[in-house]
Design goal:
The protein is an alpha+beta fold. Helix content is 38%, strand content 31%.
């Protein structure tokens, strides 16, 4: 789970689900501006073996620095850009992407930055 920039977290978990023997059970996105504009996220993944679940978490954590490379934070808010060449299980389930198609996310907040 995290407090800022749902897009990078979804993409990181999506990479983990593709690479490990796990399944995305659900994802929750709640409004949480305490860590910056954007959604807080909480992912539930399931596995038959604890080591598979641990491996998925390790993959997601390895992916986060790369995915957060497109998040720009300043005093007014933040901009977040995420992309994937193939929308996988996490993007389909959490964001309504179409399986097998490229998918991008742009998240801006607060609203004044979104208007820019």
């Amino acid at each position: 789970g995290g407090r800022v920039a749902v897009g990078p977290q979804v993409i990181a978990v999506d990479e983990a689900v593709k690479a490990a023997d796990v399944e995305l059970i659900s994802m929750e996105a709640s409004r949480d501006s305490k860590g910056g504009a954007g959604c807080g996220t909480l992912f539930y993944i399931g596995a038959n073996d604890v080591s598979d679940a641990r491996h998925a978490v390790e993959i997601a954590l390895e992916q986060l620095p790369k995915q957060f490379g497109e998040v720009y934070v300043n005093a007014a808010g933040h901009l977040s850009f995420s992309y994937t060449a193939r929308a996988g299980q996490c993007c389909v389930k959490t964001l309504g992407a179409v399986e097998g198609k490229a998918f991008g996310i742009i998240c801006c907040g607060p609203a004044a930055i979104g208007c820019l």
